[in-house]
Request: fold
Amino acid sequence: MTLELQDIQGTVLNNRPMPYFGSYVAFRINDAGSARTMLERLIPHITSAADWARPRENAWINIAFTWEGLRRLGVREEILDGFPIEFRQGMAARSAFLGDVGRSAPEAWDFPHGNNGFHVGLMVMASTHEGRDEKLAMGRRALEGLAGVELAARLDVGVPPTLREHFGFADGISRPFIEGQGGEPLPGQALTKAGEFLLGYENELGQLATGPGPEAFWRNGTYIAIRKIHQDVAAFRNFLRMSAADSAGQEKVAAKMMGRWRSGCPLALSPDADNPALVADAQRNNDFAYFEDDRIGRKTPVGCHIRRVNPRDGLQDTMAEARLHRLLRRGAAYGPMLPEDAVEDDGHDRGIVLALINANPGRQFEFVQSQWVNDGDFVSEGRRTDPILGRRDRADDFAYPDKPIRRRLAGLPDFTATRGGEHVFLPGIGGLRWLAGMQAGDP
Ligand code: HEM
Reply:
């Protein structure tokens, strides 16, 4: 089985350069004709998975739509009704289920999130500033003379040269290997059916993943759950300082909460001390499982971030199967880094924008967020939530096996707050052509 790389938007399959410069640009559609003209102009510039790897390419652009955006483009009612409920309702409407409550509630989200504030999103990535600006200029040209599409917001993101996210962890190490993507899986990389991440292919349930309306519209498309999450770096650092007397102890607490040392080295392979050399070795840095080796979480706590969001083989004696809830992640930081060692907040907004790619937003992103991030029942942890980003109104403690006795950290503050969320549809290149060419009311 091979994937139709020339028809798949590049961000689904391709890893970004590290470091990189990116922008999310959001538009509102006030007139379908203008939006289709913009789309027609943009299509030749949209980067497919086949284009991505071209040697001289150093900037990439992809495009996605909210459900309201497709409606405003003129997609017929029966087709719109056939989309999954999560996408139809939009992420703000799902907030109670997803745990976006209190300071994470949609009322507190940044514009243009929530309330159908945006309809089309451009994702621009480049290995240089100039590359990004060139693509943004191209996006601006596509809008020229079109009164019916308006720029709503732009957020610059990127992976800084340190390759660390704001809390100081190396990210982007573990990812599924998609059947048909080419090459061989790395040790520990689960081989996953393409239908988990792309419409038009068989999924892990042995079913063909499809979309509504004609195949020309949905083939090679997928959904992305976008999460904009504010990170309170000072709160995180202060909590670590209070949790252990010396920096070695503090690093251990950080690692226990994440499941990897801040270098990215997995606790599963190096439980007692960090081993940065291991991170550099792609044959080893993800080569671990939990069931046989660490069922009760002596090394990697069952409630830590990475074991929650991907329990690997660790749920074998339960009804759940991790392979049905996989996510492809594209994460990037926004806002300036808090200077190293600062423990006072400097008032700058900062955080992470996650693009979580999935062909079934209910079974994948929403399941992971509601059952695994924001609940602990699946690993007998009661109402305990993810120590890094879980909601704290259910439980605010985190516990892990330690010597001589189990360690329990109480009073975890909110290290994060959701500032935006959106389910978007990322069509294949053929699907974009279909959208640009259809007449309102076309089949
Ligand atoms: C403040 C927000 C977040 C931060 C700082 C964060 C950070 C990290 C880090 C440092 C890793 C380990 C690196 C790696 O394994 O590649 C990781 C892994 C992962 N994260 Fe997050 N994350 C955040 C939110 C989320 C959310 C909301 C989800 C999904 C609901 C998620 C899903 C994952 C998954 C699936 C993995 C891979 C785990 C594995 O395969 O072992 N993360 N995250």
